[in-house]
Design a protein that fits this description.
Blueprint lengths: L1 H6 L3 E2 L2 E2 L1 H7 L3 H11 L8 E3 L3 E3 L6 H10 L1 E3 L6 E3 L2 H9 L4 H10 L7 H13 L10 E4 L3 H9 L9 E4 L2 E4 L3 H10 L27 H4 L22 H12 L13 H19 L3 E6 L5 E12 L2 E6 L4 E6 L3 E6 L7
Antiparallel strand pairs: 1-2, 3-4, 4-6, 5-6, 7-9, 8-9, 10-11, 10-14, 11-12, 12-13
Helix pairs in contact: 2-3, 5-7, 11-12
């Protein structure tokens, strides 16, 4: 206790300090004022040097320190900290929303010296090259030769859930997967076709419901139904009343036998039920027997310990190989808690 009191400035030399005496008397406001009077005033200006560094001659004001940490990288500790500017640190500031003018204005305002020419060149050169390439995320795209279709799709309020971004006059990108995008476009009344990449054979995979009566005669065989459905909603919580009732029926009758489902509810309810089983196993920290489909369509069954489920992926631990791995939800065929684990 004496060591901690000494570190706080309340005790030293075998006796209470004036600040410690105020604390002992319960005069905390007076003690805080005494501490403030004993500390040096924070500074708001730094010394910029030609070697792309800035020296803070004392403790900086919090707002100035936060801004300087965005523009540069600190080197060392203590009241006289050195901050180094680099292309990476300037890019970090540009990522945070700054531009060359605002960076130069901040340095000019909070520097005791003129801004070195080398630092000005660094800021202007980095800002000039920044943003020449734009990076974003997209899982699928729509391509058409009809500009009117693009305009209508972008203007349709029902398509807002797709997160569409126009990349070119006839190209739109979406964060949804190709299967999700196709399904939702069909729901909106469009008739999308899968894109055939150069070097691929045939017309691409189709669902059995899309088969044409002449396919057999033309020698194009029907593809088998997918092992696991990939049709999911961008917002998984927008469920209809019928879907909620079907899910509740599945949960209530899970242990009594198969559940009668309508053709439109079966696959989706099974996916939801599988996710609920995985979450139950995660809460109970028990292994599951997980059936998945590999990239060739082969069925693989393993005993794994699920760790988390998010973003359409399941993170699991393989006790046999003692490694962690990630499994896509759309490859999961069935999930079963291993028998012999304790019940809830």
């Amino acid at each position: 206790m004496l060591t901690e009191a000494a570190a706080l400035g309340l005790f030293g030399g075998g006796a209470l300090t004036p600040i410690g005496f105020l604390v002992e008397q319960g005069l905390l406001d007076d003690a805080a004022a005494a501490v403030g009077a004993a500390l040096p005033a924070p500074v708001s200006r730094v010394v910029l040097q030609a070697d792309l560094t800035a020296i803070a001659p004392g403790y900086l004001e919090p707002a100035v320190a936060r801004e300087l940490l965005t523009l540069s990288t600190p080197e060392g500790q203590g009241p006289a900290t050195t901050y180094r500017f680099s292309a990476d640190s300037i890019r970090r500031a540009l990522d945070a929303g700054h531009d060359a003018a605002s960076i130069t204005a901040f340095l000019t305002e909070h520097s005791t010296t003129a801004v070195p020419q080398a630092l000005t060149y660094l800021v202007e050169d980095t800002a000039g090259r920044y943003g020449s390439l734009r990076v974003g995320g997209a899982a699928s795209y729509v391509r058409t030769e009809d500009d009117a279709v693009v305009a209508a799709l972008l203007a349709d309020p029902r398509a807002a859930a797709l997160g569409l971004v126009q990349l070119a006059p006839t190209v739109i990108a979406s964060p949804a997967s190709p299967a999700e995008l196709s399904s939702l476009l069909r729901d909106l009344g469009y008739a999308p076709a899968p894109e055939i990449r150069p070097g691929t054979q045939g017309r691409g995979p189709r669902r059995p419901s899309d088969a044409h009566p002449d396919d057999t005669a033309s020698g194009v065989p029907d593809l088998p139904p997918p092992i696991a459905t990939s049709r999911t909603r961008l917002n998984p919580w927008s469920l209809s009343g019928e879907e909620i009732e079907a899910q509740l029926a599945s949960l209530r009758l899970r242990g009594t036998g198969p559940v009668d489902r309508s053709p439109g509810q079966g696959q989706e309810s099974e996916v939801l039920l599988g996710l609920e089983t995985l979450r139950t196993a995660i809460r109970r920290k028990v292994p599951v027997r997980l059936g998945t489909a590999d990239s060739q369509g082969n069925s693989v069954r393993q005993i794994l310990v699920p760790l988390s489920v998010s973003g359409g992926r399941v993170r699991v631990y393989d006790p046999q190989k003692q490694v962690e791995k990630v499994v896509s939800v759309h490859r999961v065929m069935d999930v079963e808690i291993v028998e012999g684990t304790p019940d809830d």
